[in-house]
Specification:
It is built from 25 helices and no strands. It is mainly alpha-helical and about 550 residues long. InterPro entries: DnaJ_domain, DnaJ_domain_CS, J_dom_sf, SRC_co-chaperone, TPR-like_helical_dom_sf, TPR_rpt.
Length: about 550
């Protein structure tokens, strides 16, 4: 419905006909009521010599103020127009027309709250004025109050055109979509899109409704990534600058801090929100939840420090159930639980926990380190090396990662040689008695005499002897564990075990006996008569060595 200029019913009959002022914004309905010509307004300052200087303006003078305001409005000098309309309103406070005209100027100047005040008063003075109602509905739309706009349109008879009501209806639809996305959606992106569409229908320069800002913050929290959480904080801070005691804004910022893992500051915000509004349920809920989570995490840490790995895992698992949606805290809980699993040699479980932690926080370096370490300790050194290399690319200044990478590369080399621990069936931290028992058992099971039809039995028996020869000797075992034998190119005798407790440096032997050494192969090569590292085996004189030379 066009909001065309009409003849002011309060205009004296002696006044000339009306003139039309174009809209500043067609969606706002900011045209005003006025006349093409009118008497010049009286001087703004009364003559001091005049005996009637304190006399109130007459209706004719009020009308003159309005007319001058119309001229300024048409020239888009809205500030001056507002000044003249204000004089008219002060002269005739009960004039709905003057209030409505000033509302139009306020709209064009982007002062929507002032416009709403004037238009509401005008509506009270003239409840059934179609033009005032139309302008009031458009102000509501500009301010993002779509339902109030539609309710106002419903009061207009005959009903306004579809074109008039379309912006408010579209705005309400976008907000409905955003609310549904926040309630039922899995991410906040759809809600943000709907809010962006609603924003476009606001008046130019109009403040975004507080409700919409809170919804936007909620959408950012729902997205949960680092940038989105920062955006949620920005929304909350914007609201708190307007009102530092806004409980909903305090809870919004507290939740953002909580999602970022800063539980201490989050608790402070929740407590402040409760102080502002003790009946605000969300503030109480989040305060209790974060306090409970912190308490359970602390209990898990206490058990971890005490070396009670199973008990720590139980505490961390319980803590993970408190708030399954919290990415920041849950990633740390999973990382802590993974460390416990590593201590229990549950490498598969540790790797799984690290992967879950990284799915919640892809930038979590500690979880990447723990995963790489667990991969290596589970025997997957190639994967461990790959993980550490990726970490080093991401953190080139971290000397600790460089050291871990070198160690993993060494362990990869070690993994490609004979695994003496695996041959004997013992763990790498097995003590001397465990190694001895394992050797005796394996030697009996795989002795060639007991496996006459097994062509590989002799080779296995030899490997068992080599393994025991190395692991039963503290110095050889230390060199084997540290990988020193891999770093020294001259270390290649007997597969890691020189028979009979040989302690002479191989390089010295080479200098002593030269070519008499025959071949320098591993057990069973040129030194086959050394005993092959098999304790209790035959110990003949080494070929080319003096009789009785004990290895």
């Amino acid at each position: 419905m066009p909001d065309a200029m009409d003849v002011d019913t309060e205009t004296p009959s002696s006044m000339p006909g009306a003139f039309e002022i174009p809209k500043a914004n067609g969606a706002n309905g900011t045209d005003v009521d006025g006349d093409a010509e009118a008497p010049e307004p009286p001087p703004h300052k009364s003559n001091p010599a005049s005996p009637v200087q304190d006399a109130p303006p007459t209706p004719e003078q009020a009308e003159a103020f309005k007319t001058l305001g119309n001229k300024y409005y048409k020239a888009k000098e809205y500030k001056k127009a507002i000044e003249e309309y204000t004089k008219a309103v002060e002269a005739q406070p009960s004039s709905a027309t003057y209030l409505s005209n000033r509302a139009a100027a306020y709209i064009s100047a982007g002062l929507y709250i002032n416009a709403l005040d004037d238009c509401t008063r005008a509506d009270e003075l003239d409840p059934n004025n179609e033009k005032i109602l139309l302008r009031l509905a458009r102000i509501y739309t500009n301010l993002g109050r779509a339902q109030e706009a539609l309710d106002t349109y419903d009061r207009i008879q005959p009903p306004p055109s579809a074109k008039d009501t379309a912006p408010a209806k579209a705005m309400l639809q976008h907000i409905s979509v955003a609310e549904d996305a926040l309630k039922n959606g899995t991410t906040g992106s759809m809600a943000l899109h709907a809010l962006d569409q609603a924003d476009k229908l606001l008046g130019l320069g109009a403040p975004k409704p507080r409700k919409w800002q809170l919804m936007r913050g909620e959408a950012y929290l729902k997205m949960g990534n680092v940038n989105a959480l920062g955006d949620a904080q920005n929304v909350a801070m914007s609201l708190l600058r307007n009102n530092s005691q806004d409980p909903e804004a305090l809870v919004l910022r507290g939740r953002a801090l909580y999602s970022q893992g800063d539980n201490e500051k989050a608790i402070q915000h929740f407590r402040q929100a409760v102080n502002c509004d003790p009946d605000y349920r969300d503030a109480v809920k989040y305060l209790r939840m974060v306090q409970k989570l912190d308490r359970m995490k602390a209990d898990g840490n206490t058990e971890y420090k005490a070396g009670h790995w199973d008990a720590a895992i139980e505490k961390y698992t319980e803590a993970l159930e408190v708030d399954p949606l919290n990415r920041g805290t849950n990633s740390k809980l999973l990382q802590n639980r993974a460390l416990c699993r590593v201590q229990l040699k549950d490498y598969k479980g540790a790797i799984s926990d690290c992967e879950r932690a990284l799915s919640l926080d892809p930038t979590y370096t500690k979880a990447k380190k723990t995963k790489a370490s667990a991969l290596g300790q589970s025997g997957k050194w190639e994967e461990a090396v790959r993980e550490f290399k990726e970490l080093q690319e991401q953190e080139p200044q971290d000397a600790g990662i460089a050291k871990q990478l070198r160690n993993a590369e060494l362990e990869l080399k070690k993994s490609k040689r004979k695994d003496y621990y695996k041959i004997l069936g013992v763990e790498k931290d097995a003590d001397e008695n465990q190694i001895k028992k394992a050797y005796r058992k394996a030697a009996i099971v795989h002795h060639p005499d007991k496996n006459p039809d097994d062509e590989d039995a002799e080779e296995r028996f030899k490997d068992i002897g080599e393994a025991y020869e190395c692991l039963s000797d503290p110095q050889k075992r230390a060199r084997y564990d540290s990988g020193e034998d891999l770093m020294d190119p001259m270390e290649g005798f007997g597969g890691g075990g020189m028979g009979g407790g040989m302690q002479i440096d191989p390089e010295i032997l080479m200098q002593m006996f030269g070519a008499q050494m025959g071949g320098g192969g591993r057990g069973g090569g040129g030194f086959h008569s050394f005993g092959g590292g098999m304790p209790g085996g035959r110990r003949g004189a080494a070929q080319g060595f003096p009789g009785g030379f004990q290895f």
